[in-house]
Protein backbone atom coordinates (compact mmCIF):
# COMPACT_ATOMS: atom_id res chain seq x y z
CA UNK A 1 0.00 0.00 0.00
CA UNK A 2 1.30 3.45 -0.88
CA UNK A 3 0.41 6.14 1.62
CA UNK A 4 0.47 9.86 0.99
CA UNK A 5 3.89 11.58 0.96
CA UNK A 6 5.94 8.40 1.38
CA UNK A 7 8.94 7.68 -0.82
CA UNK A 8 8.44 5.18 -3.65
CA UNK A 9 11.16 3.43 -5.61
CA UNK A 10 11.04 2.59 -9.29
CA UNK A 11 12.62 -0.49 -10.86
CA UNK A 12 16.01 1.25 -11.13
CA UNK A 13 16.01 2.06 -7.40
CA UNK A 14 15.37 5.76 -7.96
CA UNK A 15 13.30 7.32 -5.16
CA UNK A 16 10.19 9.39 -5.87
CA UNK A 17 8.20 11.37 -3.30
CA UNK A 18 4.53 11.19 -4.23
CA UNK A 19 1.16 12.25 -2.90
CA UNK A 20 -0.63 9.39 -4.67
CA UNK A 21 -0.29 6.86 -7.45
CA UNK A 22 -2.61 6.21 -10.38
CA UNK A 23 -1.97 3.04 -12.35
CA UNK A 24 -3.44 2.39 -15.80
CA UNK A 25 -3.27 -1.31 -16.56
CA UNK A 26 -4.07 -3.25 -19.70
CA UNK A 27 -5.33 -6.78 -19.68
CA UNK A 28 -3.89 -10.15 -20.43
CA UNK A 29 -6.53 -12.19 -22.27
CA UNK A 30 -7.68 -15.32 -20.50
CA UNK A 31 -7.11 -17.83 -23.27
CA UNK A 32 -6.52 -20.91 -21.08
CA UNK A 33 -9.70 -22.68 -22.25
CA UNK A 34 -8.81 -22.00 -25.90
CA UNK A 35 -5.26 -23.29 -25.36
CA UNK A 36 -6.54 -26.43 -23.66
CA UNK A 37 -8.91 -26.97 -26.61
CA UNK A 38 -5.92 -26.78 -28.97
CA UNK A 39 -6.94 -23.48 -30.59
CA UNK A 40 -4.39 -21.03 -31.97
CA UNK A 41 -3.63 -18.15 -29.61
CA UNK A 42 -1.44 -15.12 -30.21
CA UNK A 43 -2.14 -12.34 -27.70
CA UNK A 44 -5.72 -13.59 -27.75
CA UNK A 45 -7.73 -16.27 -29.51
CA UNK A 46 -6.90 -16.19 -33.22
CA UNK A 47 -10.05 -15.75 -35.33
CA UNK A 48 -10.70 -15.17 -39.02
CA UNK A 49 -12.73 -12.30 -40.50
CA UNK A 50 -15.94 -14.09 -39.43
CA UNK A 51 -14.73 -14.35 -35.82
CA UNK A 52 -14.39 -18.11 -36.23
CA UNK A 53 -11.42 -19.98 -34.79
CA UNK A 54 -9.61 -22.71 -36.69
CA UNK A 55 -12.28 -25.04 -35.25
CA UNK A 56 -15.35 -24.33 -37.41
CA UNK A 57 -17.65 -24.82 -34.40
CA UNK A 58 -15.95 -22.24 -32.15
CA UNK A 59 -16.15 -18.45 -32.39
CA UNK A 60 -14.54 -15.78 -30.20
CA UNK A 61 -15.44 -12.13 -29.78
CA UNK A 62 -14.68 -9.17 -27.55
CA UNK A 63 -11.43 -8.43 -25.74
CA UNK A 64 -10.08 -11.96 -26.18
CA UNK A 65 -10.46 -12.20 -29.99
CA UNK A 66 -7.36 -11.44 -32.09
CA UNK A 67 -8.57 -10.62 -35.60
CA UNK A 68 -6.59 -9.52 -38.64
CA UNK A 69 -7.45 -5.88 -39.45
CA UNK A 70 -6.63 -5.26 -43.16
CA UNK A 71 -6.83 -1.50 -42.70
CA UNK A 72 -3.94 -1.63 -40.21
CA UNK A 73 -2.13 -4.59 -41.78
CA UNK A 74 -1.94 -6.70 -38.64
CA UNK A 75 -3.80 -8.89 -36.17
CA UNK A 76 -5.20 -6.91 -33.22
CA UNK A 77 -7.17 -7.30 -30.02
CA UNK A 78 -9.32 -4.33 -29.09
CA UNK A 79 -10.07 -3.82 -25.40
CA UNK A 80 -13.15 -1.62 -25.32
CA UNK A 81 -16.89 -1.80 -24.92
CA UNK A 82 -17.77 -0.86 -28.51
CA UNK A 83 -15.65 -3.70 -29.92
CA UNK A 84 -17.07 -6.20 -27.42
CA UNK A 85 -20.66 -5.25 -28.26
CA UNK A 86 -20.22 -5.15 -32.03
CA UNK A 87 -18.05 -8.27 -32.35
CA UNK A 88 -20.37 -10.22 -30.05
CA UNK A 89 -23.35 -9.37 -32.23
CA UNK A 90 -21.39 -10.23 -35.39
CA UNK A 91 -20.21 -13.57 -33.98
CA UNK A 92 -23.79 -14.40 -32.99
CA UNK A 93 -25.09 -13.59 -36.49
CA UNK A 94 -22.31 -15.68 -38.03
CA UNK A 95 -23.03 -18.62 -35.71
CA UNK A 96 -26.60 -18.39 -37.00
CA UNK A 97 -25.34 -18.63 -40.61
CA UNK A 98 -24.92 -14.99 -41.72
CA UNK A 99 -21.25 -15.27 -42.89
CA UNK A 100 -20.58 -11.52 -42.54
CA UNK A 101 -16.98 -10.37 -42.32
CA UNK A 102 -16.35 -8.28 -39.19
CA UNK A 103 -14.73 -5.03 -40.30
CA UNK A 104 -16.10 -2.62 -37.70
CA UNK A 105 -13.66 0.10 -36.60
CA UNK A 106 -14.32 0.36 -32.88
CA UNK A 107 -14.14 3.66 -31.09
CA UNK A 108 -12.90 4.47 -27.61
CA UNK A 109 -14.13 7.14 -25.29
CA UNK A 110 -13.58 8.60 -21.87
CA UNK A 111 -14.80 11.54 -19.84
CA UNK A 112 -13.20 13.45 -17.02
CA UNK A 113 -15.33 16.25 -15.59
CA UNK A 114 -15.85 18.75 -18.44
CA UNK A 115 -13.31 17.10 -20.77
CA UNK A 116 -13.72 14.00 -22.84
CA UNK A 117 -12.82 12.33 -26.06
CA UNK A 118 -13.92 9.83 -28.65
CA UNK A 119 -11.16 8.16 -30.65
CA UNK A 120 -11.14 5.78 -33.57
CA UNK A 121 -8.33 3.98 -35.37
CA UNK A 122 -4.73 3.69 -34.29
CA UNK A 123 -2.93 6.29 -32.20
CA UNK A 124 0.80 5.92 -31.70
CA UNK A 125 3.19 8.54 -30.32
CA UNK A 126 5.64 7.70 -33.12
CA UNK A 127 3.20 8.71 -35.85
CA UNK A 128 2.99 12.15 -37.42
CA UNK A 129 0.27 14.21 -35.79
CA UNK A 130 -1.78 17.21 -36.81
CA UNK A 131 -3.94 19.02 -34.26
CA UNK A 132 -6.81 21.21 -35.42
CA UNK A 133 -7.81 23.17 -32.29
CA UNK A 134 -10.87 25.38 -31.94
CA UNK A 135 -9.74 26.13 -28.37
CA UNK A 136 -6.22 24.97 -27.51
CA UNK A 137 -6.29 21.73 -25.46
CA UNK A 138 -10.04 22.11 -24.80
CA UNK A 139 -11.75 21.41 -28.12
CA UNK A 140 -10.31 20.03 -31.32
CA UNK A 141 -9.44 17.13 -33.56
CA UNK A 142 -6.07 15.35 -33.53
CA UNK A 143 -5.14 13.31 -36.58
CA UNK A 144 -2.53 10.53 -36.50
CA UNK A 145 -0.84 9.89 -39.84
CA UNK A 146 1.49 7.24 -41.19
CA UNK A 147 2.74 7.13 -44.76
CA UNK A 148 0.37 9.91 -45.79
CA UNK A 149 -2.70 8.07 -44.49
CA UNK A 150 -4.86 9.02 -41.55
CA UNK A 151 -4.55 6.05 -39.18
CA UNK A 152 -6.35 7.48 -36.15
CA UNK A 153 -8.48 10.40 -35.02
CA UNK A 154 -9.05 11.78 -31.52
CA UNK A 155 -12.12 13.98 -31.15
CA UNK A 156 -11.24 16.02 -28.05
CA UNK A 157 -14.44 17.51 -26.63
CA UNK A 158 -15.89 17.17 -30.14
CA UNK A 159 -18.92 14.91 -30.18
CA UNK A 160 -20.90 13.04 -32.83
CA UNK A 161 -18.22 12.74 -35.53
CA UNK A 162 -16.97 9.16 -35.07
CA UNK A 163 -18.46 8.00 -38.38
CA UNK A 164 -16.71 10.86 -40.24
CA UNK A 165 -13.43 9.84 -38.60
CA UNK A 166 -13.99 6.21 -39.64
CA UNK A 167 -14.59 7.26 -43.26
CA UNK A 168 -11.45 9.42 -43.25
CA UNK A 169 -9.34 6.52 -41.94
CA UNK A 170 -10.72 4.39 -44.77
CA UNK A 171 -9.54 6.87 -47.43
CA UNK A 172 -6.23 6.05 -49.13
CA UNK A 173 -4.85 9.60 -49.12
CA UNK A 174 -2.14 10.72 -49.29
CA UNK A 175 -2.84 13.54 -46.88
CA UNK A 176 -0.57 16.39 -45.94
CA UNK A 177 -1.10 17.30 -42.27
CA UNK A 178 -2.08 20.93 -42.96
CA UNK A 179 -4.69 19.82 -45.51
CA UNK A 180 -6.62 18.20 -42.65
CA UNK A 181 -7.54 21.55 -41.08
CA UNK A 182 -11.34 21.62 -40.92
CA UNK A 183 -11.65 18.18 -42.54
CA UNK A 184 -13.87 17.09 -39.68
CA UNK A 185 -15.93 20.20 -39.04
CA UNK A 186 -17.63 20.74 -35.72
Itemize the secondary structure elements and their pairings.
Layout: E1 7-9, E2 15-17, H1 32-36, E3 45-47, E4 65-69, E5 74-76, H2 81-95, E6 107-112, E7 115-121, E8 128-135, E9 139-146, E10 149-156, H3 162-170
Parallel strand pairs: 3-4
Antiparallel strand pairs: 1-2, 4-5, 6-7, 7-10, 8-9, 9-10
Main sheet: strand order? 6-7-10-9-8
Structural class: alpha+beta
**Helix and strand element order:** EEHEEEHEEEEEH
General form: globular
- How many β-strand runs? 10
Q: Count of helical segments?
A: 3
Give the amount of beta strand, in percent.
25-35%
* Uncertain stretches: none
What's the helical proportion of residues? 10-25%
Largest sheet: 5 strands, antiparallel
Through-space gap between termini? 45 Å
Cα gyration radius (Å): 20 Å
Task: Give the integer mean of the pLDDT values.
Answer: 90
Short description:
The protein is α+β, with helices and mostly antiparallel strands.
Features of the shown structure:
186 residues, three-stranded mixed beta sheet, alpha+beta, five-stranded antiparallel beta sheet
Task: Describe it.
- The structure is a single chain.
- The chain has 186 residues and is of the alpha+beta class.
- Helices cover 16% and strands 29% of the residues.
- It contains 3 helices and 10 strands.
- The chain has helices at residues 32-36, 81-95, 162-170; strands at residues 7-9, 15-17, 45-47, 65-69, 74-76, 107-112, 115-121, 128-135, 139-146, 149-156.
- It has a 5-stranded antiparallel beta sheet with strand order 6-7-10-9-8. A 3-stranded mixed beta sheet has the order 3-4-5, with no helix packed on it.
- A hairpin with a 2-residue loop joins strand 9 and strand 10.
- The longest helix has 15 residues, at 81-95.
- The radius of gyration is 20 Å and the shape is globular.
- The N and C termini lie far apart (45 Å).
